[in-house]
Amino acid sequence: MNLGAISVAALATAIAVSCFSRLNVGLLAIALSWIIGVHLGGMPVKELVAGFPVELFLTLAGVTLLFSQAQVNGTLDRLAHQAVRLCRGRTGVVPIFFFFAGAVLASMGPGNIATAGLLAPMAMNTALRMGISPFLMAIMVGNGANSGSLSPIAPTGLIVGSLMAKIGLGGMEVRTWLYNLLAHALVAFAGYLLFGGWKLLAHGKRIDAVEANAEPLLGGLERRHWMTLAMIAALVLGVIFLKLHIGMAAFAAAVVLSLLGAADDAQAIRSMPWATILMVCGVTVLISLMEKTNGLELFTDLLARTSTRATLVPVLAAITGLISAYSSTSGVVLPALLPTVPGLIARLGGGDMMAIASTMNVAGHLVDVSPLSTIGALCVASIPAGETSRKLFHQLLAWGLSMTLVGAAICYALFG
């Protein structure tokens, strides 16, 4: 019995299910790993369980807990509302502002989905009030949130950093983040100019900032907000200068906020993205089983047959983007593909590991403004149902699918 081939089939099944089902693929991956490893392969349960990424779980849980506290106590919401004042009603500047607001907020630690959840309703409502194309605004706020997704302290950045460290690319977190930010900035501002941004800037139209916002502007930051920002700043400085373990340090910061009454830890725990954490950890267990059964080598060989050294970057970008358009980039696609990088290099007779890994990271995220992804769906859901929302759905669907080709071209230009 070829357990390697069976494990590859199990991964293919998990990816297919993630594209067409709402079942958490982490659950499926763990169940398949147990059946294949223990009951077909005779592997001790303890050996299978050893593939569970304990350190990654603690890191994700700690960081997402801290930023869930920042979300439930209103800190992130206050920051977003206060920052809108900076636009002062300038229609041409507003979409640009939301791109940078998304990039900064996501990079601070909440990640792309939490940031889009905060900004998309405000951005889309502002677009309708100020006469800005909802499609244009969705491109800017969606790509802005995605541009910060690979920050070293954001959940997806932590996942990718862990995966890259396992293949010998540790210490590349900042470089990975900046590559992704650059790619999204190129795409977002090209879309901004192509779909009406230039006209907004040229006309210089202004609308009262208070009227332009979907909700009344909130008051100044309160004690609990300043304490939360202080803990986040302490976490970042501690990780950079004191080399603290980011997950454990985040747990400590969250405990301090709870003890000081600045945040409700019970509410924050309920708000944590447990489904995503389970998805990532479950798929990692299956990938670990593939490594032990030589299935990863078979999977790598399958990918290598689709391209040559000259065509690897654009072909891999197109494949990654196409799968990511229908599946979870951080939970399924990158955990499945990044471990194959060393094997791809070996089978093709050489290549740049960082370039191939960056291709997967960037191409996987560029398609995530599609309405089939959470970020695109948040933008569509943030405007009233009707003709406008249907039109926006189709526009974003076309945009997301076109990013499989655009992503391939950008990755070839950057990494080919």
Explain the layout of strands and helices.
Layout: H1 3-20, H2 25-40, H3 45-49, H4 54-72, H5 75-84, H6 94-108, H7 111-130, H8 134-147, H9 155-166, H10 173-194, H11 197-203, H12 209-212, H13 223-241, H14 246-259, H15 265-271, H16 274-292, H17 295-304, H18 312-324, H19 329-337, H20 341-347, H21 353-366, H22 374-381, H23 387-415
Can you give a write-up of this model?
The protein is 75% helix and 0% strand. With 416 residues, the chain is an all-alpha fold. The chain has a domain of 220 residues. The radius of gyration is 22 Å and the shape is globular. About 3% of the residues have low confidence.
Mean pLDDT: 89
Q: What separation lies between the terminal Cα atoms?
A: 39 Å
Query: Which blocks of ≥5 consecutive residues have pLDDT under 50?
Result: 208-218
Q: What is the H/E string?
A: HHHHHHHHHHHHHHHHHHHHHHH
Q: How is this structure best summarized?
A:
The chain is built from 23 helices and no strands.
Key descriptive features of the protein:
416 residues, mainly alpha
